[in-house]
Amino acid sequence: MGTEQPGAVEPGERTVMTQAPGRADARRNRARITEAALAVFRQRGMTAEIREIAERAGLGVGTIYRNFSSKDELITEIVRDKLVATLAEIRRLEALDDPLQALQLVLTEELSLVDYLGGLSEALSAPTPRNLVRNLDEWEEFRRAEPFEVLIKRAVEQGALRADLDIATAAAMLAGLVLNRNWRPLLTARKPNELARSAFDTFLRGVANPTKAS
Predict the structure, then answer these.
(1) Which residue among 89, 123, 163, 201 has the highest number of C-beta atoms inside a 10 angstrom radius?
(2) Contact indicator for 98, 104 with CB cutoff of 8 Å
(3) What does the pLDDT look like over 81-99, one tens digit per residue?
(4) Between 3.40.50.300, 1.10.10.60, 3.40.50.720, 1.20.120.1630, what CATH number should domain 11-68 receive?
(5) With the CA atoms of 145, 148, 119 and 195 taken in that order, what torsion angle do they form, in degrees rounded to the nearest 10?
(6) Is the peptide bond before 127 cis (omega within 30 degrees of 0)?
């Protein structure tokens, strides 16, 4: 029987140690792929080819397919990751004391999503079956008007918006704004916060409480 040496590594542990660099390389490659893909999709939209992404990432096409089974899977992951971050920020904004400020910031956050995705924002509005995000839980949550409805209701209760306002309709109007493809050309010349402020000011002209000073 051999004597165990101080600091000896068990076979299973040795395997983990030798595999770790490979896993790190795989993570780096995956990050390079998604970063390059976003840049290419932003410029070229969903018609961009895997070959273009591989060239941008400095990787082989085979490496792309070892990480993602298809271009659709790659698109879906990029959109899902951004949706997760956007939803987390929207939940934080809902807790702000001023509901009108929160409404404008939520709208800004949603327009920032469209701006971030660029040409890839087609994935948010493309008709079935090309709408790759339609089955994502994050997409279903994003589409709901609930954050707008909650904040508009609070604003009405505080007297900042008209008491006779149809809350559900107003919330649906704001929630549907970012799904309009007409935002993309506007975002090439203006920042999301500027557009959100302009859109929200227009919205407020129709729903603000005239008896309360702005």
Answers:
(1) 123
(2) no
(3) 999 999 999 999 999 999 9
(4) 1.10.10.60
(5) 150
(6) no
